[in-house]
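lol ok so funny story. i was supposed to be doing the assay writeup but got distracted and ended up predicting the structure for this chain instead. priorities right. anyway since i did it might as well share w the group, maybe its usefull for someone
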Amino acid sequence: MNELAGMFLRLNLFFQTAIVLVVIFLVFFIGLNLIEDYLEWRGTKLSRMSSEDRRLWISRTWPQGLFHWADQKIQRVWDKILFLIFTKSYWWGC
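and the output, tada:
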C-alpha cells in the first residue's frame, strides 16, 4: 500500500488532480445510480405484489432486503460503467 501511495505522490499535480476527480466521479456515479434504482425498484416492487408477498417482503429484515437489492443492481451499474468506457475508447480510437 505504501508503494502505491509513493507512486501517486511522485506524479505531478495535474495527474494527481485528474485521478482524484475520476475517483470522485465514479463514486458519485455509482452512488446516484444505486439510489435512483433503489427508489424506482421499491416503488414498482410494492405496487405489483400480492398482499401475501407484500407481507413477506416487509417482514424480512432490512439487511436482507438491502443485500437482495444490491445483488441485483451492482451488475447493472458495472454494465453502465463498462458501456461508457468502451464507447469512449471507441470514439477516441484507443
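The chain is about 90% helix and 0% strand. Residues 29-92 form one domain.
back to the writeup now i swear
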